[in-house]
Amino acid sequence: MTDINTVLASLRRPSLLIRAARFGLTDYNRTRDLKRVMGTSTCLAPARVIDGLIEKEAHFEATRKKGDAG
Fold it and tell me: What's the CA dihedral at 5, 43, 20, 13 to 10 degrees?
C-alpha cells in the first residue's frame, strides 16, 4: 500500500465535485454511509476505507471511459 497522505495529496478533482462533496457533508454519517458504500457490516480502518474507495472510483472511471451506460 502506498502512503495514504501521498495518495490523497495527489488526487485532483473538478471544482464542481469538490463543492458537491462539501455540500453533502452536512448530512454525512460515516457509520451509516460507509457500511452501505463499502458493503460491510462493520466500520473499517481509515486506511482500508481509502483503499477501497479509490478502487471503487477506478472501477467507475473505467466503466465511464468505456461508455457503458449501465
Answer: 30
- C-alpha span between 5 and 37 (Å, rounded): 22
- Domain assignment present for residue 57? The answer is yes
Residues 6+ apart with CB under 8 A from 46: 4
Listed in sequence order, the residues at least 6 apart from 4 whose beta carbon sits closer than 8 Å to its beta carbon are 46, 47, 50
How many structural domains is the chain composed of? 1
Quick: pLDDT tens for 13-60. 889 988 998 999 999 998 888 888 888 877 778 888 888 888 998 898
Give the domain extent around 49. Answer: 14-66
Long-range Cβ contact pairs of 23-28 (< 8 A, separation 24 or more): none
Coil, helix or strand for 51? helix
Q: What is the pTM of this model?
A: 0.70
